[in-house]
Amino acid sequence: MDKLVAALGPVFAVGFAVQQLIELLSPVVDKAGWRKKEVLGLASLVIGIILAWGAGIRVLAPLGVRSPHVVDIVISGLIVSAGTEGVNSIMKFLGYAKEKKRAESKLS
To answer: Could you give the CA distance from residue 53 to residue 3 in angstroms, rounded to a whole number?
Structure first.
């Protein structure tokens, strides 16, 4: 589990950076009169995928999921684009999985 948390650390950091960048872009989108949610969502996704590809950030591989490289990049980009929320969701899921294993081992 500690290795997994260490592997996902960069994902959290990049997600936080994307979140902050989107915050900086928000006033620009407001001034331009564009549809804020759609524009910032698309910008976040594009930035997330570019950073996942360029920085070699992978989410599925540390989770033990075997998938094509492109699929891992797209999934990683989606998670990174969600900012810190995306990583928090993964960490919650892993916590639940750990608790389930612990409960199952106590029953055995």
So the answer is: 22
pTM passes above 0.85:
no
Residue 8 banded pLDDT, cuts 50, 70, 90:
confident
Handedness of CA 10, 16, 20, 26 (dihedral sign): positive
2-32 and 84-107 helices, crossing angle to 10°: 150
What are the start-end ranges of the H helices in 1-108?
Answer: 2-32, 36-55, 69-81, 84-107
The rounded distance, in Å, linking the Cα atoms of 7 and 87 is 12
CB 48 within 8 A of CB 77: yes
Domain ranges of the chain: 2-107
